[in-house]
Amino acid sequence: MNSAIINNALRFILLLATQVTIFNNINLFGFVNPFPYVLFILLFPVNGNKYGLLVSSFFLGLTMDMFLNSGGVHAASCLILAYIRPTIFKFAFGLSYEYQTVKINDSLSPERFSFILIAVVIHHFTLFFLEIFAFDYFFSIISRTLLSTIFTLLISIFIIYLIKPNRR
Fold this sequence. Notes:
With 168 residues, the chain is mainly alpha-helical. 67% of the residues lie in helices and 0% in strands. The protein is built from 6 helices and no strands. Helix 4 packs antiparallel against helix 5.
């Protein structure tokens, strides 16, 4: 079996397990939740199977929906993020991402930070919009998106540096 498949499977299981056991129990101020499980979608290899990413992202979101009893909003948000990930790559890195020179878990550069930020904002906005699904609560959607994005970004960057391989 390919080592990339094993790494992705382990990343899927570990991020999902930590999300379910630790991060789902964090609820700041009653409405700020971290969702670092999206790192699976962000850290998926650039040259990996695109259909495999879509399917695994759907199952990641579906599993989150089963644990949170949220009716499919995580599955839809993960699927949307996985689908538009190449566009976010192109926006953040330019054409260099097509040559597989991009590794998100390297040192944090402005391009990597903008990629993570845009992806998390899109995921969270989609998630909260589908969860509330009313334009009357637009400012609630925006505030939950921004505050949860900040919290998720901090935790995600910490996790990236935690799992980053040491290069000597």
